[in-house]
User: Which sequence fits this backbone?
């Protein structure tokens, strides 16, 4: 099969502002994959869990939908690493896009062609050990006090990768948990805060 005809289940694509992490604030084109079997209670993209036959798009269709202003592409989900992304990322790379991926890290990461890998580990299905050395950014969602020790456990595995360390409040717990995150970062300055500014701005 020609690479252009390989297809993937795509929940949605949109051009917006990256709201989270190190690249928060830049314009980015998002490709949201369907499929995730981790099922975090607080997931804000539950609609992407289920893989729908009708949502499959070919690489050709995905690329044709990207507008000419786009420089950075964020591949997210769901869990995009459930799929071998190489047929898509190799063509995006050839076209000159900067490629970022957001993943739980619990599936193998084919890092060729990818410029920035953000791993957001989940307690229910921890990252594969081999993935820690591939990541550029570790993003831990903080819902409650126990998540700070989970963050340190994950940072320990990541310590050789020299990556950016982010703590991000779980959106619905924002008001309660934010003061604790601020205080924690002041005491542990290797971390930085990640806010979901797209939610504050009310954009996708
Ligand atoms: Fe949602 Fe991500 Fe958790 Fe999957 S890993 S359930 S997409 S937050």
Assistant:
């Amino acid at each position: 099969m020609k690479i252009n005809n390989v297809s993937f289940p795509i929940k949605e694509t949109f051009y917006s502002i990256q709201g989270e992490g190190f690249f928060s604030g830049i314009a980015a084109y998002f490709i949201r994959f369907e499929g995730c079997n981790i099922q975090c209670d607080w997931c804000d993209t539950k609609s992407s869990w289920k893989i729908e036959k009708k949502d499959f798009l070919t690489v050709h269709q995905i690329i044709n939908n990207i507008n000419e202003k786009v420089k950075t592409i964020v591949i997210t989900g769901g869990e995009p690493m459930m799929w071998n992304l190489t047929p898509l990322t190799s063509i995006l790379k050839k076209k000159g896009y900067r490629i970022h991926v957001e993943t739980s890290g619990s599936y193998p990461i084919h890092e060729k062609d990818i410029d920035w890998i953000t791993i957001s580990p989940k307690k229910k299905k921890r990252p594969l050990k081999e993935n820690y050395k591939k990541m550029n950014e570790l993003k831990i969602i903080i819902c409650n006090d126990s998540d700070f020790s989970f963050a340190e456990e994950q940072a320990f595995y990541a310590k050789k990768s020299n990556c950016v360390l982010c703590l991000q409040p779980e959106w619905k717990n924002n008001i309660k948990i934010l003061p604790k995150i601020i205080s924690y970062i002041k005491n542990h300055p290797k971390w930085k805060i990640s806010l979901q500014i797209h939610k504050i701005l009310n954009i996708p």
Summary: The pocket of iron/sulfur cluster is lined by residues 36, 38-40, 43, 45, 77-79, 104, 122 (CB under 6 Å). Strands lie at 7-17, 27-33, 56-58, 72-76, 98-103, 116-119, 137-142, 164-169, 191-193.
